[in-house]
Design brief:
Shape: elongated
Distance between the termini: 36 Å
Structural class: mainly alpha
Strand content: under 5%
Strand order of the largest sheet: 1-2
Order of helices and strands: HHHHHHEEHHHHEHHEHHHHHHH
Bound molecules: arginine
Length: 467
């Protein structure tokens, strides 16, 4: 039986019927639709709309649908189903007969889709937080493995100052921790239950909305029926959070591509995650990284689709909202398939600490430390900057490094230079002067790794607590 049709004299045009159906994509919401239907059925029983026997029959029917979906690959092929709600309605009727039609009492698909999507995103967040934690752990392992290895840090893509490789990796750890935090925030805000909102004005039966919310592990019912049935902010917020994660992934991928190039040679591409060229036998290409860089476009595209879809939409439910689903599903499958792969890549990639150190020793990256030497001797920083700039110029003319200038040459710039100046220019000393919270001094970085591990652990615990 259809969910509607009494007032129609003509059947639907078959092309239109197929075209407007969402079952091909919303069938992935089946488990949430079944859980929400069970909660609604229990509320109907408490409101004396269903007898105990009817409730049992409905709950058993819903369970049977879940079991058949799990065991049969063709069960979900249904050309007639308008959407996942209609599918359950039909299947339940064929399993338990007319009592199935009582399940829809006092509810509307407008609230059903809203609750299904919230449940789907909530479960996706729990899974993604776990996947993110796994990647974070892999990055932290790389950071620990790197010990005191050094590399150049760049600004404007020009060598700027040396940093610990671990410090560099921790920069990505910070981005990803923020991404995880955004998902957690989004989960908190979406964890309210729209059931009992009806089509637009609220349920027509005395359903206990708090009980339904508790049944589905929501923190409470939503506050306004118009808003609950038309709100997709939570979809947008979630996909925007995924877009930011996608942006971070693309920045990371871009740097790994750069660092794995012949010219940098900082990282070896793992063969298991690279491909060859059909033309040039010598090639090993960073395809995983390139596709990772590219996937951000899909995620950002999904966020744009959602914004444009909901912009200017009048209250309350409009069928336009059905279009939010595919953008959401594509974003979730894009990111869920990506995270385990980048984790595998991270574990398999090997950094060439020797090459990184060589690069960190070139390029006058101790110049700021040299200026700091003068500042500590009371020289105004602008003067120190100017004088070390002149020293660099001298080195460029002579083809040497700052530490290779004689004391005599240095004195011609400033008599404050002394023999202890040279000790300030080694990589180790340059690192050590950045001894502030968030700086690259080795002790600070070791502590930052410990702190980051705890924060990753908290993400794991949070997602386990919800599971
Ligand atoms: N498939 C629909 C959607 O995703 C379900 C809600 C249908 N509601 C309605 N009034 N036609 O939006």
């Amino acid at each position: 039986m259809k969910l509607w049709g009494g007032r129609f004299r003509q059947p639907l045009d078959p092309d239109f019927q197929r075209w407007q159906s969402s079952f091909a994509f919303d069938r992935r919401l089946l488990s949430y639709e079944l859980a929400a239907s069970a909660a609604h059925a229990r509320a109907l029983k408490n409101a004396a709309v269903l007898s105990s026997d009817e409730l049992i029959a409905i709950l058993q029917g819903l369970e049977q649908i879940a079991a058949q979906a799990a065991s049969s690959s063709t069960f979900l092929h249904d050309e007639e189903a308008e959407d996942v709600h209609h599918f359950v309605h039909k299947q339940l009727a064929s399993l338990i007969g007319d009592v199935a039609y009582k399940l829809h009492s006092g509810r509307s698909r407008n609230e059903q889709i809203a609750v299904d999507l919230r449940l789907y995103i909530r479960a996706s967040i729990d899974q993604l937080e776990n996947d993110l934690a796994t990647w974070l752990e892999a990055l932290l392992q790389c950071a620990e493995h790197a010990h005191d290895a050094v590399m150049p840090a760049y600004t404007h893509l020009q060598p700027a100052e040396p940093v610990l490789v671990a410090h560099y990796l921790l920069a990505y750890v910070e981005m990803l921790l923020r991404d995880a935090g955004r998902l957690t925030d989004c989960r908190k805000r979406l964890n309210l239950c729209p059931l009992g909102s009806g089509a637009v004005a609220g349920a027509t039966l005395a359903l206990d909305r708090r009980a339904m919310a508790a049944d589905l592990a929501f923190s409470g019912p939503t506050a306004n029926s118009l808003d609950s049935t038309s709100d997709r902010d939570f979809v947008l917020e979630f996909v925007c959070a995924l877009s930011l994660l996608g942006l971070h992934l693309s920045r990371w991928a871009e740097e790994m591509i750069l660092f794995s190039s012949e010219q940098y040679g900082f990282v070896q591409l793992p063969e298991a995650y690279s491909t060859g060229s059909s033309a040039m036998p010598q090639k090993k290409n960073p395809d995983l990284l390139e596709l990772t860089r590219a996937k951000a476009a899909r995620l950002i595209g999904a966020a744009h689709t959602l914004m444009i879809l909901t912009k200017g939409l009048p209250l309350a439910y409009n069928k336009d909202l059905q279009e939010t689903q595919e953008a959401l599903f594509d974003a979730v499958s894009t990111i869920s398939s990506l995270l385990p792969l980048v984790t595998g890549w991270t574990k398999a990639a090997e950094f060439d600490y020797g090459r990184m150190r060589e690069a960190a020793e070139a390029g006058f990256m101790n110049a700021w430390a040299a200026a700091t030497y003068l500042v500590r001797r009371g020289v105004p920083s602008s003067t120190a900057h100017e004088q070390i700039g002149k020293a660099v110029q001298l080195c460029l003319e002579k083809g040497c490094r700052l530490q290779e200038l004689s004391l005599q040459e240095l004195h011609s710039l400033n008599p404050a230079f002394d023999t202890d100046f040279y000790a300030c220019l080694t990589l180790e000393s340059v690192l050590a002067i950045h001894d502030v919270v968030g700086g690259t001094a080795p002790g600070r970085v070791r502590q930052a790794i410990v702190d980051a591990k705890q924060r990753v652990e908290a993400i794991r615990e949070g997602s386990h607590a919800h599971a």
